[in-house]
């Protein structure tokens, strides 16, 4: 009977831990993603918000002047982009010989085909990613109450050349393919490599501690769930930090010519237009370096620090709750 209770609790805890992690990544982190993107595309900004302290201050200002919605805008569209990405990957792998997973007996050809599948997926999701980016950075002050499927409509409109008239500075989708796919594939490679590496270290550590002493049932259950969560956390953090400059460039290229009005991240009130005139990825990199300096690529980096501090705190709290529940049941 006790064994059944423990198994039920174990199943419930596994589900709860996964849910807490998903909630943190997609819901709790959203205000940080909104502010980070607004800072990245704000070429006017004198304050770069490289530390969490200035980011918290500006978040408070936006919340005060525009209400809580200012920090939660575009959340529905980020889920739609994830859905489109997963759906596209499933459909492409179904109708082509491209593998969705890499087997243990991998070879260079299989890795190349797998990365090609990822590249095609990012290409399909690109117009929706672009529409979602606009939703997350567009100022709440001048925003209409857009529906949850607005991102899909805008994405299709961008491909077909329909919808809101854009300016002549809008970069064609073809010229956005390379930076979008490059960022997506690099993010995938870095996060996969770090996740496997961290998981290997944690499992080796767990195995040696199991050999050294008899572990408690609580500890062995924690070892079943937490290494993977910690590995995912480390993978996500490292890939976001390493690719932050490239993400800044990517977001500036996507937003150019879309007539987007963003919040003033220096003052916390007022709005600013985006009037950049980059000719492409190389021009964007050179212009940022010349006009904003190397730190210009890291605008809004303080939001990443807050995002992952929150994530680490939720992981720790979940671990404490789970340990307490298990100790009481054992």
UniProtKB/TrEMBL annotation:
GO terms for biological process: axon development; mitochondrial membrane fission. Its main location: mitochondrion. Gene3D superfamilies: Mitochondrial carrier domain. Solcar repeats lie at residues 223-325. It is a multi-pass membrane protein. It is found in: Mitochondrion outer membrane. Signal peptide: none annotated. It comes from the Eukaryota. Keywords: Membrane, Mitochondrion, Mitochondrion outer membrane, Repeat, Transmembrane, Transmembrane helix, Transport. It holds the Pfam family Mito_carr. One of its GO terms (cellular component) is mitochondrial outer membrane. Transmembrane protein of the mitochondrial outer membrane that controls mitochondrial organization. May regulate the assembly of the MICOS (mitochondrial contact site and cristae organizing system) complex which is essential to the biogenesis and dynamics of mitochondrial cristae, the inwards folds of the inner mitochondrial membrane. Through its interaction with the EMC (endoplasmic reticulum membrane protein complex), could regulate mitochondrial lipid homeostasis and thereby mitochondrial fission. Associates with the mitochondrial contact site and cristae organizing system (MICOS) complex. May associate with the endoplasmic reticulum membrane protein complex (EMC). PANTHER family: MITOCHONDRIAL OUTER MEMBRANE PROTEIN SLC25A46, TB1 PROTEIN-RELATED. Belongs to the mitochondrial carrier (TC 2.A.29) family. This is Mitochondrial outer membrane protein SLC25A46. It comes from Acinonyx jubatus. The lineage of its organism: Eukaryota, Metazoa, Chordata, Craniata, Vertebrata. The gene is SLC25A46.
